[in-house]
Each structure stands twice: as C-alpha cells, then as structure tokens.
Specification:
268 residues, alpha/beta, Rossmann fold, 8 strands, SAM-dependent_MTases_sf, transferase, EC 2.1.-.-, methyltransferase activity
C-alpha cells in the first residue's frame, strides 16, 4: 500500500512576490556545490517549493541546474491552485508544475528542494518541524536549501540542510550595493532573524563581520570584491567558514550551522 498523503496541501499561501533573476545567487551556489551530486543521481529531480505568482524562478532553476547536471528535472510546487494553472503553459521537457505544499506530491524522493521566501511568514517555532518534514522527503545525498532574499536578489541568506538536518548558512550579496555586512541581517531566514540580539551566535557573527569589514577598508581602493575577500579571510580566524576564495569572489561566505544555531527558546 502506498503511503497515505494529506487530502489537502500542507502549508499556507504566501504573498507570491517574484521577479526574474531574484534567486540567481542561490541557484548559482546550488549548481556549484550540489551539481556533482545531481550528476551522480540516476534521475535528479529538483523541487521549486512555493515558486509564487509567476513561474520565473522554476524556469530559471532548470536552466541553471542543467549547466551543472544536464539530466536534471524541476517540479514547481505551489499551494495556490490558480498559480499552478497560470504556470502550466510554461511546462516543457524537464519542467512541470503541481498543486501541493510541504507534503510534496511526488512519486520519487527529490535530490534537491529549494524553498525561497516561503517560511518568512511562519512563526519561528514552526520552522524546525517544516525542516524535518522536508528533509525526510529527500533522496539519499539530497539537499534542502531554505532562505530569504530581497525583491531583486541583491541580498540573500540561506540554510542548507541534508537528510540529517541543517549543515551551513550562506550569506550572499551584490558587493557594489553593500554598506556593511550586517545589512544582510534583514534577510536572515526565519530560524535566525529573531536571533540577531546580544547573546545569540548570529549577532556575534554579524558584529565580527562588520568589524572585519571596517578593518579591511584599505582594500576598498582595489574594489569591493577585494575588500570582501580580505574580510572573510579575517573571519576564518574565529568562525568556521567552510567555503573557499572561489566562492568569496562571488560575494558569498558559508559558515557551519552549528556556529550560528540559536541558543535559546523561540523569540517570535
């Protein structure tokens, strides 16, 4: 007997705000760090969960993933039926759209689930349950990427999770638009955004990030990229940065989840 699925999608309708290229930073990171796993998968299926009022992010995800894994397929899943109907004309080989929510109405376990700007409207104490549910849907070696960005994708913060749970937090930005690294605080995912207060690790990290950025001011004459690279290199002395200068050059830094994980109870 097949597993019982909910009679209605699990979750809440989001605002649905979306713009072309909004998720480009997240997509490029996924292709870079998870592309090899997608290539190894027998049938690599990626889910764009809660893609919103227009299908652009799913269309773009397919194009970017196929640069790294030519056999990748994308399924856009939306809880609002009208959005699914509006997306259907954009279906093509490798891209389909389905009505659903966190239950993921799929016949097979996905190799990737991307949930961008989905959990922002939920309470903080709901996040762990959603993470656990989605991680339980992943194929072996699969990845869940959950995070938040601004309306045009200049600033983005996401958590990467495997079947076992959260692994890393990535901060990504258009360097030319950055005043200080703590500008990214407003885009922290729901699990962290209420934790940017004294006594919490993410607050200490952003404080140190700003201090390192200030100390690297002399590098600004060589451009924002060189200043960012110098800043992140300084951070490695005290924080478990897990990526390399190749990613720093893209305006990114990835830190082990355990270093930023909340220490107290819910703050919602």
């Amino acid at each position: 007997m097949s597993p019982r699925t909910p009679s209605r999608p699990v979750g809440t309708v989001t605002r649905g705000t979306t713009n072309p290229n909004r998720l480009r930073r997240m997509d490029r990171w996924i292709a870079a760090v998870h592309g090899a796993a997608l290539r190894r998968a027998a049938d690599p299926v990626a889910v764009d969960l809660g893609y919103g009022a227009a299908p652009w992010t799913a269309v773009e995800l397919l194009a970017r993933l196929r640069e790294a894994a030519p056999r990748a397929r994308v399924v856009g899943i939306e809880i609002e039926p009208a959005r699914v109907a509006a997306a259907k004309p954009y279906e093509r080989e490798g891209l389909t759209f389905r009505h659903g929510g966190f239950e993921l109405p799929l016949a097979q376990a996905p190799s990737l689930i991307r949930a961008a700007n989905v959990l922002r409207q939920y309470d903080e104490d709901q996040v762990a349950g959603v993470w656990e549910r989605l991680c339980g849907k992943l194929a072996p070696g699969g990845l869940l990427v959950e995070g938040t960005c601004d309306e045009i994708g200049r600033r983005h913060v996401w958590v990467a999770l495997g079947p076992e749970g959260p692994r890393t937090v990535t901060f990504a930005t258009r360097l030319g638009s950055l005043h200080t690294p703590s500008d990214l605080a407003e885009r922290l995912p729901k699990a962290l955004i209420h934790r940017n207060v004294p006594g919490e690790p993410v607050h200490a990290f952003l404080r140190d990030f700003d201090r390192a950025w200030a100390a690297a001011a002399p590098y600004a004459s060589y451009g924002a990229r060189q200043r960012w690279i110098s800043t992140v290199r300084a951070l490695t002395a005290d924080w478990p940065v897990v990526d390399t200068p190749a990613r720093w050059r893209q305006g990114e830094v990835t830190v082990a989840w355990g270093a930023l994980a909340p220490v107290g109870g819910s703050r919602d």
